[in-house]
Amino acid sequence: MKVCYKHQHLRNYLLLGISFLLMGGWRILASFDQIVSYLWLLLAAISLTHYFYSRKKAYITIKQGYLYKNLLFSPKLLLTDIKRIRKFAGDYILMTEKAQLTIDTQIIDEDSLEELECVLAQLDLEPS
Prior knowledge:
The chain is of the alpha+beta class. About 45% of the residues lie in helices and about 20% in strands. The protein has 3 helices and 7 strands, in the order E-H-H-E-E-E-E-E-E-H. It has helices spanning about 5-30, 35-55, 110-120; strands at about 1-5, 60-65, 65-70, 75-80, 85-90, 90-95, 100-105. It has a 4-stranded antiparallel sheet, with helices on one face. It has a 3-stranded antiparallel sheet with strand order 5-6-7, with no helix packed on it. Helix 1 (about 5-30) runs antiparallel to helix 2. The chain starts with a strand and ends in a 7-residue tail after the last helix. The model has no long low-confidence stretch (mean pLDDT about 90).
């Protein structure tokens, strides 16, 4: 199961990347400081890479009993190891004995959020 990002969230990264690309290109063509121009292009590359990666991969993947948050240094959690689910400021905080994972519900698509809540409800844990 994949928990997808909202389209608005993805579109914002695309627009940010395009804006950085235009700014860097304009600064290079107008012969401004080259170092700063290339920094704009680097920011554009980072933003566009994040956009395409986020479009291809979902925010969260639940597969074979594991919950993966598709970010660089995010832990994977075994669903049966989750001891406690805490809802704080609209976010879900999943806690195990060794790890903690925060799920930002503001950037999740509404349909995917409903599916995620169904999976979390099946764990038979009391939200706190």
